[in-house]
């Protein structure tokens, strides 16, 4: 395999992937990209096969110059795009540019790029609509959350996902969209992680939906497999652990108590204001009532991916 | 705590007899890694529901079971039954009957109306016992896993039918037939006799869409101790006459659903002729 470019390189998943790629002799070079300016402070591995570039993905010119600069110089063949805004409380045009327009730019530019042949987009289970009349077990053809009342965090993710889907077969590069289960680890943008690590974790009384969570190792495995194949398409990437929300809370050792649904929004708002928690109830309201479990059959059949790494639960 | 499997296990042991314990030991349910299946079913809650329904099944409704040998021991299949009684006691008794009359005990997966998943406590307890929301995707996934589904094709219009329409099948939906054809799964017609008199419905007050569809107006506040008789018919094996592609042909699906409805109606007729009294 030739060189690989990884955006969102400073995230937990980005770092894990970079380590994997560098340990694979078949990968000739890893180009890591994030918006952090101080590369030394980031403590990336020292290797001749590694280079780091600070790029603001919200700026089309910088994306262009990165792809036709370092990426072309290193003959990058595969782009793994992990860069997304992870804090739902940060909103606005710049966030939209970085989350959605960056995907559009990468795909458009890859069409006339001399070496890029494959683009992997890390998408999210949050793009799926959760509603009482929809299946709990979600396949790739499940309705997406296109609600105009959905928070920008969700709308941007759906738009980025659909932008990639719409270009499949229309650009030179093969495109893979991986709709990943939530990784229950820090620095992964996990809302559930924020929920569990709040001072209190109130949940809807009388509801105990099924949740599927993934380890960073499993997500990295799925992305690594996607870089090696030639198939394109959309794939659900579930995690190893499927369990009710109450069990997630118990195994995590979090303090939680059931509350009537009507009180949850103000409670979480108050928690955000007082503790800075990034958990946003509007993003998770339906999921905390009806649940969502990704069906990974397609990823298993096509990519050969099966989740195998369980979460290391603090309280078994 | 209220939904903890430990609590369910404790209650099941406290309330159940040796038969409940024996059935619980022999249960074969899929485990997605933490004791629950992907839809939330947990064996300890099946044991608890078995323990709770036992006195109702044996003493209160004194259920008689006929033809349970027609229930396949394994593989995907659909039980299609008449629905009535204001409260879904017919579903509970059928669930308990399948558990008792299959060896090893088979957990039937009742397919409930959408609104059930919006009900606090009920939605969770039902899910732990194997109930799933009535979306095609859920049913498809369960049949793909080789599960036994319980479907009431009359839906809520059946359970809320006026007492004067007892034992008359309401509009017979076709989803079960489509699923059976597509998955080549046998349909076992089922007649539940007794439920239609347990709680005579005098009418209903419709509610706005989104949650509970109506408020029933029953003649009695709780189900009366009618005697239940459950009849299982011979499996309708659509795989012999239909290909999976026929599931996309509306006339073929309609024809298959009508055959199921006719089989259920014939079993109801047989059950009504055989019974000696309502109580």
Task: Tell me the strand order in the biggest sheet of chain B.
Answer: 1-9-6-2-5-3-4
Task: Return the CATH class of the domain at 3-183 and 214-239 and 294-303 in chain A.
Answer: Alpha Beta
CATH topology of the domain at 3-183 and 214-239 and 294-303 in chain A: Rossmann fold
What is the top-level CATH class of chain B? Alpha Beta
The low-pLDDT segments of chain A are none
How does this model look, in words?
The complex is a heterodimer of chains A (about 325) and B (about 280). Chain A has a domain at about 5-185 and about 215-240 and about 295-305: Rossmann fold (3-Layer(aba) Sandwich), CATH 3.40.50.720. Chain A contains 11 helices and 14 strands. With about 325 residues, chain A is α/β, with parallel strands linked by helices. Chain B starts with a helix and ends in a 5-residue tail after the last helix. In chain B, α3 packs across α4. The interface between A and B is medium-sized, with 30 and 29 residues.
Describe the secondary structure blueprint for this structure:
The complex is a heterodimer of chains A (316) and B (279).
Chain A lengths: L2 E5 L4 H12 L6 E5 L15 E5 L5 H14 L2 E6 L11 H19 L6 E7 L12 E2 L13 H16 L6 E7 L1 E2 L7 H6 L6 E2 L5 E5 L1 H13 L4 E5 L3 E4 H8 L5 E2 L1 H15 L5 H4 L2 H4 L2 E2 L2 H7 L13
Chain B lengths: L4 H11 L2 H8 L17 H18 L3 E3 L10 E5 L7 H13 L6 E5 L9 H8 L2 E2 L2 H9 L3 E4 L3 H5 L15 H9 L3 E7 L1 H4 L2 E6 L7 E5 L10 E4 L17 H25 L5
Parallel strand pairs in B: 1-9, 2-5, 2-6, 3-4, 3-5
Antiparallel strand pairs in B: 6-9, 7-8
Which structural traits does this protein have?
heterodimer, A: 316 residues, alpha/beta, Rossmann fold, 3-stranded mixed β-sheet, 11 helices, B: 279 residues, Glycerol-3-phosphate (1)-acyltransferase, 7-stranded mixed β-sheet, two-stranded antiparallel sheet
């Amino acid at each position: 395999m030739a060189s690989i470019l990884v955006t969102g390189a400073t995230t937990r998943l980005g770092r894990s992937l970079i380590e994997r790629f560098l340990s694979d002799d078949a990968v000739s070079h890893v180009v890591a990209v994030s918006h952090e300016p101080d590369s030394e402070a980031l403590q990336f591995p020292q290797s001749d096969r590694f280079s780091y570039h600070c790029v603001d993905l919200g700026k089309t010119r910088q994306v262009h110059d990165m792809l036709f600069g370092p990426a072309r110089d290193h003959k990058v063949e595969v782009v793994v795009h992990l860069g997304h805004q992870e804090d739902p409380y940060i909103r606005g045009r710049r966030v939209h540019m970085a989350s959605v327009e960056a995907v559009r730019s990468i795909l458009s530019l890859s069409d006339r790029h001399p070496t890029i042949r494959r683009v992997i987009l890390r998408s999210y289970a949050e793009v799926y609509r959760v509603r009482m009349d929809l299946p709990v077990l979600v396949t790739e053809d499940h309705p997406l959350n296109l609600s105009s009342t959905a928070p920008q965090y969700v709308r941007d993710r759906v738009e980025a996902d659909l932008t990639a889907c719409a270009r499949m077969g229309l650009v030179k590069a093969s495109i893979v969209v991986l709709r990943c289960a939530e990784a229950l680890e820090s620095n992964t943008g996990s809302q559930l992680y924020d929920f569990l690590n709040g001072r209190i974790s109130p949940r809807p009384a009388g509801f105990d939906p099924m949740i599927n969570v993934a380890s960073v190792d499993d997500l990295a495995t799925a992305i690594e497999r996607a870089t090696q194949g030639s198939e394109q398409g959309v794939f659900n990437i579930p995690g190893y652990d499927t369990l009710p929300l109450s069990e997630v809370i118990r195994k995590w050792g979090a303090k939680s108590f059931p509350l009537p649904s009507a009180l949850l929004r103000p409670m979480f708002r108050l928690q955000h204001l007082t503790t800075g928690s990034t958990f946003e109830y509007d993003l998770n309201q339906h999921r905390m009532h009806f649940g969502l479990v990704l069906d990974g059959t397609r990823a298993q059949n096509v990519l050969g991916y099966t989740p195998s790494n369980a979460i290391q639960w603090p309280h078994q | 705590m209220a939904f903890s499997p430990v609590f369910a296990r404790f209650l099941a042991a406290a309330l159940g007899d040796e038969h409940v314990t024996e059935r619980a030991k022999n249960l074969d349910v899929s485990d997605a890694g933490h004791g629950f299946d992907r839809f939330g079913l947990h064996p300890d809650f099946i044991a608890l529901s078995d323990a709770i329904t036992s006195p109702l099944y044996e003493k209160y409704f004194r259920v008689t079971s006929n033809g349970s040998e027609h229930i396949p021991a394994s593989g995907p299949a659909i039980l299609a039954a008449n629905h009535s009684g204001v409260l879904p006691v017919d579903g509970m008794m059928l669930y308990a009957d399948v558990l008792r009359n299959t060896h090893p005990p088979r957990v039937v997966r009742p397919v409930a109306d959408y609104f059930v998943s919006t009900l606090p406590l009920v939605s969770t307890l039902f899910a732990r016992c194997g109930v799933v929301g009535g979306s095609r995707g859920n049913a498809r996934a369960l049949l793909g896993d080789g599960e036994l589904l319980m479907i009431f094709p009359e839906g809520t219009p059946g359970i809320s039918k006026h007492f004067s329409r007892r034992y008359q099948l309401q509009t017979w939906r076709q989803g079960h037939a489509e699923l059976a054809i597509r998955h080549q799964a046998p349909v076992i017609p089922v007649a539940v006799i007794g439920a239609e008199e347990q709680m005579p419905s005098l009418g209903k007050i419709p509610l706005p869409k989104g949650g509970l569809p109506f408020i029933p107006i029953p003649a009695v506040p709780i189900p009366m101790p009618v005697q239940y008789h459950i009849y299982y018919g011979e499996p309708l094996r659509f795989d012999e006459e239909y290909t999976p592609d026929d599931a996309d042909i509306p006339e073929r699906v309609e024809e298959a659903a009508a055959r199921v409805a006719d089989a259920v109606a014939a079993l109801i007729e047989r059950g009504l002729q055989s019974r000696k009294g309502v109580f």
